[in-house]
Every structure is written in structure tokens, then in C-alpha cells.
Write a structure and sequence with these properties.
The structure holds two protein chains of two kinds. Chain A is built from 14 helices and no strands. Chain A is mainly alpha-helical. Chain A has two domains: 146 residues, no CATH class; 157 residues, no CATH class. In chain A, helix 13 runs antiparallel to helix 14. Chain B is of the alpha+beta class. A four-stranded parallel sheet of chain B has the order 8-7-12-13. Chain B has a four-stranded antiparallel sheet with strand order 14-17-15-16, with helices on one face. The chains are: A mainly alpha, B alpha+beta. The interface between A and B is medium-sized, with 31 and 31 residues.
């Protein structure tokens, strides 16, 4: 039992922290690709910008795109906007976070949005972003190690995994739902890096960089924490605890999550052709959005009369 | 009162002098020469006239000397960084950007000897007991008004008087559960009450955060000096609030206006340390005169609300209709005895600057005692004789608007220009009821680290008193500091800072780790 508003803020804190990390990684990969002076650079740029729904700036260099992804406060889809929102949510529920986790997040926020931030980014953008990613890992680590893994924790992680499932699904959709799916070696490696999946992928499939394998790995792998399947399984697990055995009807978030998870658990890669993966990926995004809405209606914005104590 | 007689000490360094890190002689670093510390006319907390260090400051003095200027500056930086990291900040909204600043904090503690504290504590308990009785009376039978001790129109005409509170049952008669009085020390070293804050006093989180920092800044002195602990404040607050409920195992909540309030950090801090939910108005709902909070598992009953929202905003049905911060129907639930609001609405009528002048009479009326802590002499402009005295002496007096707080709406006569005084005199004559006047008091000074030098700054003292079934004074306080040289304004909204306050244990008292409130005088009158 916790305040509905607090649960909502924890959920959003998880979502924004995850978003900040993902955007940082997209930007780093894009910047590193730009060093190579091949057309892979353009591909990486196109993938990254399309994955966040930004139109790539006209004739824009990778650095301009990265600056947009990282420092633009006018859009909600940038690293600093996500960090500011994460921190704002955290501040509203400061009493729920342990000092250890709050201080990590606060420090990260102050550094990434403070006076020296733009100069630090200009001086060494990759280093600036790697530090943000490392700091976010520290925040999550501190939270994992010091917060009670109770209801609040589960709301926060439900936010993390819902965001992750949607971001990865979107990234894959951009790469494989096209008439010309990405099949260039360098671009595929870039995709794996954007999903922070290169090393785990290599261990699972060896250095055989293949679009079909990548799709299988990022969609269906049971153990890799950034696969869509892994995320939906966590979502189902947390929601099972959060519902506490109550059933909330047809729009029960647990029911929706279970259905999505089963779809992924029993899917077969042979039926999902690359280039035709769009249907399943689109369904994943839509189902995640439905789970998101039903969490809000079930736990936060329910009508008073329905939930008076017995 | 401990005041060393002025005397010349030969061969002794001047007050405030510091050694540089590399010098081993008594020679002072250039910026810390004679001009650096001039205690002036005010009572100085650390140095007696003539420059002798007072006994309660001797350990700290040694520590300061041993550390030297560089180490002190480093520690000041560490301290500021720790405040920033913890988020003990207020937000400054500027054009296009927002920045967060820490509340300026000075690293030297202000140190109060045991005997002085015992008197302060007894005085505070006496004062709050009388003020609670006063509130129960004016919202009850109004005997004190009928007996003519306090003018009826002053109370019933006050904007802070809440008719809605009339004949409402308040457990233990504890209208004011959390009180933060402002004390000052005059030229003779005597503590006076400057103001009673009975509405939603803030600052206690700074008391706790300052302590945390000061303990790390001067670990050696802290250990040796036998400083009484303040850390139990949150659990004492929780037990006080529990005594205000009529169900066993009550659900307590802290009600905040939200994250944009300048004291939000404190609201979250107290909720976290008490382990109770921090709620906003939108988290609460009233159904059949019961107050509920919206949880993920449905509605949950609430028994006691420690509200950090002003009276006007707690319930749009009972008070201001345009308030979006409050909870519709909350006051009715309170009247019905189904929830307790702490502090009770309407307590502001008793901390009014005009009512203040009557507090010694109020103490006499209810307790049959003389006030242990005196008031600052106050002229009520509503009395024609006193008004003409005030008008003749505007250049010597501080004139304050009765309803205003935070250092606004006041005239500091000695510092004002002739034109300012004349303009103010017109306001005064137009609405004398709205003003009181007091002589300018030289607040005491305490040493502060300012730009690498130790300089005297004026300070006041805000201790915190809890009252439920019992009255408890936490042995510590927030010392507010006027940061500008010579300034007497300590309000944080006007550039004030703060420092930690150490209350020393009695030398014969072996139980330094005692629970606050169990020292002599702790049980009240």
C-alpha cells in the first residue's frame, strides 16, 4: 500500500532514467560511427534519429544530431530533458528514495544540466555521455542495493522495463520494418551497440553478425536484460505482485502483460521474417501503451466510490 | 549571565585572528588583522569585552586555531557541497533558466552553556503553556476578553481569528503542536522573545542538517564539548502527533503544498525521518466526514495531519474558496472529531505582533507567574499615547506592520532616510491599529567565516517546542545569521543564513545522551 501519486512518480522516474540512458547510448554510437567516414555514419544517424522520432536536421552533422539528442531542452526526448524529469519526479517523492540513490541522481542531474555542461559536451561529447551512462548505472545500483524491494521498487522497475520494451521495439522497427532492412555489417554492429547488446550477442552467436539472429536475440532472448521478451517477463512479474491477487476486469494490467508476454514467449523467429517484423513489433508497442494506460487507471486515477475500504 | 569584565590581555591574539597554515608564530594572517573582528556594541557570543574567549567557546577556539585559515576554507567548501548534494536548496527562477542555491550556512557553531539553556527552556515551556490556554479560551468562553486583559476587538477583529474554530474540541488543549519562537539576545546578554511562530514554523530541518555538518567539521570539539543531541526531533514529533489522535495505531501524514514550496525539502525530510507518507491536497479525499488518502490499494483512513499549509489553504469549503492546495470537506471532518489538524487552524491570532505585547499579561492571567523570558518593549500604536510617543521617536524605533512577517512592511528608523520616515509616519497615522513599534535592539553577534575572514554577524535563535500530551523542547535550535555586515535582518527570504547551535550538557550531568526535555525545568510549570 502506498500513495497513488507516489507510485505514479516512481513509475515515471524509472521511465525517464531508462530513456536518458538509451538516448545517451544512441548518441554515443552515432558519434563514434561518424569518426569512420563511411556511409555507415549516415546509417547510424538515420537509425538513431528515426528511433527517437526526431527528423534529422538538414545536412546535419552527427555532432549536431547528437547535440539535439542530448542537450535540447525544448523537446521532451533528449538526455537532459529526461534527466530533469527523472529528477523532478524523484524530488516529489524524495521521502521514498534512500539518500544513497537520491544523491547519485541529484549529482548526475546537476552535472548534466549545470553551468559547465554544454562546454563539457563540446569538449568531449563521448566522454560526457559515457559518464552519464555510468552515473545512471550507479543510480540504479545504489537504488537496488539500498531501497526496499517492495511496492515502490516494483513500480519504478515496471516503468524501467515498459520504457525499455518500447524503446527496443521501436529501434528494431526502424531497422527492419523497411523495404530495405538494414543488412550492412557496420550498421548492424551499430544497432547492437545502441541496444548495449554487442558483447552478449557475440557470446551467444559468435561473431556471425546476421540480421535474423540479431532480431531473434533482441526480441526473444530469455536472459539478456535488454531484450523485449526479458522486459515483458519482468513487467508481468512485477504487476503480479502489485495487483495483490485482485482482478480489475478486462483492462487489468496484469492480464494485458501476461498476454503480451505469452505472445513473445511462444513466438517463432521463423515466422517473423526480417522486413516483415513490423507487425509483431507494432503489436508490442501498442500492447505496452495499453499496459501503461491501464496502470494509470487501476492504481492511480481510479474513481473514489469504487475503492472505499470495506 | 556570564559576562567577563573587560580587561586587557597582554600577549594574547586579538579575537578572530587566525594563523596561516604555514606560520607557527602568533602573527596573524594579513586579512585577519584588527579590522577583521570588531565585536562592536552588541553582545558577542564568543568573545567577552576585552577579547577574552568565553568559557563555552574555549574548545572551539583551540580547534579553529589548530586548523588555520586554509583548512577552515576547505571545510566550508565541503559543507556547502554536502548541502547541494543532499538537495537542501531553494530554487531561484530566473529568465529562461532555473538555478538552485543552498541556504548559506556558516561552519562555526553557536554554543550555549547549560545554565543559560535551562532558563530558555523553562521560559519557552511556560510561554507555550500560556499561549495554548489562551487559544483554548478565545475559541471557548473568552474569559480573558470578558475580564478586559486583552482587548476584544484586537482578537475578534484579527484576520487570523477563525470563527470556525469556536467550541471545537482539541485534544489536550494543544492548539500549537509545533512552535518555533524567535529569541534574541540584547546588549546585556539577556535573552528576549522577539516573536512567537505558532502557525507553520519552519527551519527544523536546517537545525538537523547543520548539526550533521558541524559534527563532521569539528569532530574533536564536538566530542569533547558534551553537546546535547537534537537527532531525536523527528521521533519526538511523531509521538507528539500520535497523542493528538483518538484511535490507537493512528495513520499520521505530513501535508505539503508541493514541490514548488520553498520549504518542500523540510516537508520531505520530516516525512522520511518519521516514516509517514508525505501527502499533497490531491492525495486526500473526504467521504462521510472521514479523511482518506488515495493509495495504490484503494482509500486508506487518515487520523492526524501535520499540515505545512497555511490555514487559508487547507479547505476551500471552510476557508479560501480559490485554494487548489487543500482538501474539500477537511474542516468538517475535523469538527466531527474524525481527524486532527496540527497545528490547529486559527493559532495565528496569538502570534500577531500586537497580541505579542500582551503575552506577559497572558502568562500572568493563566499561570499566575511572571514571564521567565521577557518581551522586547513594544509600543502599541492603537493606543493614542503610545502612538504619539512612536511618532516623536521614529528615528530610534523599528515599526512593524502587525500582520506582516518575513521582515516585510517594516521601518528601521535609525537606518531610514528622513523622507522614508515621513512617508511611513503618514501610513502610521492613517492606520495606527496595524502597527507596533519597538526600540532597535542590537542583536548579539557571533563569529562567522566570511570570505576567508572571521567576522562578527548578528544572530537570533529559533528553538523548536513540541506540545501534545506533554511539552518538549529540543535542546538545540536554528541560529539565523544576518549575512551582511551590520545588518539586523536574519530572515532567509532577505539574505539570511544559518549555523548550528550547540547546547552544552551540564557539567555535573553524566547523562549527555539523555532524551531531550528531561533536563531541569523540562516538565514545565
Amino acid at each position: 500500500m502506498m500513495l497513488a501519486r507516489v507510485a505514479d512518480s516512481l513509475y515515471w522516474l524509472g521511465r525517464y532514467a531508462e530513456r536518458a540512458e538509451h538516448l545517451s547510448r544512441l548518441a554515443v554510437v552515432m558519434l563514434n560511427a561518424a569518426l569512420d567516414q563511411t556511409d555507415a555514419a549516415d546509417q547510424a544517424e538515420r537509425i538513431a534519429m528515426a528511433a527517437v522520432g526526431h527528423p534529422a536536421p538538414e545536412g546535419g552533422e552527427a555532432l549536431d544530431c547528437a547535440r539535439l539528442l542530448v542537450l535540447d531542452r525544448k523537446t521532451s526526448v533528449s538526455v537532459v530533458s529526461s534527466l530533469a524529469s527523472a529528477r523532478e519526479n524523484a524530488r516529489q517523492i524524495r521521502d521514498q528514495l534512500t539518500t544513497e540513490s537520491w544523491e547519485r541522481l541529484n549529482l548526475l542531474y546537476l552535472r548534466a544540466t549545470g553551468v559547465g555542461a554544454e562546454a563539457a559536451f563540446a569538449a568531449d561529447p563521448a566522454d560526457f555521455l559515457q559518464r552519464i551512462i555510468a552515473d545512471l548505472h550507479q543510480f540504479k545500483g545504489a537504488a537496488e542495493a539500498t531501497m526496499s524491494h517492495g511496492e515502490g521498487w516494483r513500480f519504478m522497475l515496471t516503468g524501467v522495463y515498459l520504457e525499455r520494451a518500447q524503446l527496443i521495439a521501436r529501434l528494431l522497427k526502424v531497422c527492419f520494418d523497411d523495404e530495405t532492412p538494414v543488412d550492412d555489417h557496420v550498421a548492424l554492429v551499430g544497432l547492437l551497440r545502441m541496444a548495449c547488446a554487442l558483447e552478449p550477442y557475440l557470446r551467444a552467436y559468435t561473431a556471425d553478425i546476421d540480421a535474423r539472429n540479431i532480431l531473434e536475440f533482441l526480441m526473444f532472448d530469455e536472459d539478456f536484460p535488454r531484450s523485449v521478451r526479458f522486459s515483458t517477463e519482468r513487467i508481468q512479474e512485477y504487476l503480479a505482485h502489485l495487483s495483490g491477487g485482485h482482478e480489475f476486469g478486462r483492462h487489468d494490467p496484469l492480464r494485458l502483460a501476461g498476454r503480451l508476454n505469452a505472445k513473445l514467449a511462444y513466438a517463432d523467429i521463423d515466422e517473423v521474417e526480417t522486413g516483415g517484423a513490423g507487425a509483431l513489433l507494432g503489436a508490442v508497442s501498442a500492447e505496452c501503451a495499453a499496459i501503461h494506460a491501464s496502470i494509470w487507471e487501476t492504481f492511480v486515477a481510479y474513481p473514489l466510490e469504487t475503492r472505499l475500504p470495506a | 549571565m556570564h559576562i567577563a569584565p573587560p580587561r586587557v590581555v597582554i600577549g594574547r591574539r586579538r579575537p578572530g585572528e587566525l594563523k596561516t597554515p604555514h606560520s607557527s608564530t602568533q602573527q596573524a594572517a594579513p586579512p585577519l588583522s584588527e579590522t577583521a573582528y570588531l565585536p562592536g556594541e552588541a553582545y558577542d557570543e564568543m568573545f567577552a569585552p576585552g577579547g577574552l574567549t568565553r568559557a563555552n567557546y574555549r574548545l572551539l577556539d583551540q580547534d579553529i586555531q589548530a586548523l588555520g585559515a586554509q583548512a577552515l576554507a576547505d571545510r566550508q567548501k565541503t559543507l556547502e557541497r554536502s548541502f547541494l548534494l543532499q538537495g537542501i536548496t531553494f530554487t531561484v527562477y530566473g529568465a529562461g533558466s532555473t538555478t538552485e542555491r543552498i541556504i548559506p550556512t556558516d561552519l562555526f557553531p553557536r554554543i550555549i552553556p547549560a545554565a543559560e539553556w535551562a532558563r530558555i527552556e523553562a521560559g519557552l515551556i511556560q510561554r507555550l503553556a500560556a499561549l495554548n490556554r489562551f487559544l483554548a479560551d478565545i475559541y471557548g468562553d473568552q474569559r480573558i476578553l470578558a475580564d478586559g486583559v486583552v482587548p476584544r476587538d484586537l482578537i475578534l477583529g484579527s484576520p487570523a481569528y477563525r470563527r470556525q474554530m469556536k467550541h471545537l474540541f482539541v485534544p489536550h488543549g494543544a492548539y500549537v503542536n509545533v512552535c518555533g519562537s524567535d529569541l534574541i539576545r540584547d546588549r546585556n546578554g539577556e535573552f528576549l522573545v522577539l516573536e512567537d511562530n505558532l502557525r507553520v514554523p519552519s527551519g527544523v530541518s536546517y537545525m538537523l542538517a547543520n548539526r550533521d555538518a558541524a559534527r563532521r567539521t569539528f569532530p574533536h570539539t564536538f566530542r569533547e564539548a558534551r553537546v546535547r543531541p537534537v537527532e531525536r526531533y523527528p521521533d519526538l514529533l511523531l509521538s507528539t502527533l500520535k497523542t493528538m489522535a483518538d484511535r490507537s495505531n493512528p495513520q499520521i501524514v505530513v501535508l505539503t503544498p508541493g514541490v514548488y514550496n520553498s520549504a518542500y525539502y523540510e516537508h520531505a525530510y520530516l516525512a522520511r525521518l518519521m516514516g509517514v507518507p508525505l501527502v499533497e491536497g490531491r492525495d486526500l479525499a473526504v467521504h462521510d466526514n472521514l479523511v482518506y488518502m488515495r493509495t495504490t490499494a484503494g482509500l486508506r483512513r487518515v487520523d492526524v495531519i501535520y499540515r505545512r499549509v497555511d490555514d487559508d489553504f487547507i479547505d476551500p469549503l471552510a476557508f479560501r474558496g480559490d485554494s487548489a492546495l487543500g482538501v474539500a470537506g477537511l474542516f468538517n471532518a475535523y469538527r466531527a472529531g474524525q481527524v486532527t489538524i496540527c497545528n490547529a487552524p486559527g493559532t495565528g491570532v496569538a502570534d500577531d505582533k500586537a497580541v505579542y505585547a500582551y503575552v506577559p499579561a497572558i502568562i500572568r492571567y493563566y499561570l499566575g507567574e511572571e514571564a521567565i523570558l521577557p518581551n522586547v518593549e513594544t509600543y502599541l500604536c492603537r493606543e493614542p499615547v503610545q502612538l504619539s510617543h512612536v511618532l516623536q521617536n521614529l528615528d530610534k524605533l523599528v515599526v512593524k506592520a502587525v500582520g506582516a512577517s518575513g521582515g516585510y512592511g517594516m521601518l528601521v528608523g535609525p537606518h531610514a532616510s528622513v523622507a522614508e520616515r515621513e512617508a511611513f509616519a503618514e501610513q502610521l497615522k492613517a492606520d495606527p491599529d496595524n502597527y507596533v513599534a519597538q526600540p532597535t535592539i542590537q542583536l548579539s553577534t557571533a563569529p562567522c567565516l566570511v570570505d576567508g575572514r572571521i567576522e562578527p554577524r548578528h544572530v537570533d535563535l529559533r528553538p523548536f517546542i513540541l506540545s501534545g500530551e506533554k511539552v518538549v523542547v529540543t535542546p538545540g535550535a536554528l541560529t539565523r545569521v544576518a549575512l551582511r555586515r551590520g545588518s539586523l535582518v536574519v530572515n532567509s527570504s532577505q539574505g539570511g543564513g544559518s549555523k548550528d547551535t550547540w547546547v552544552l550538557a551540564d557539567q555535573h550531568d553524566v547523562s549527555v545522551g539523555d532524551a531531550p526535555g528531561t533536563v531541569p525545568g523540562g516538565d514545565g510549570p
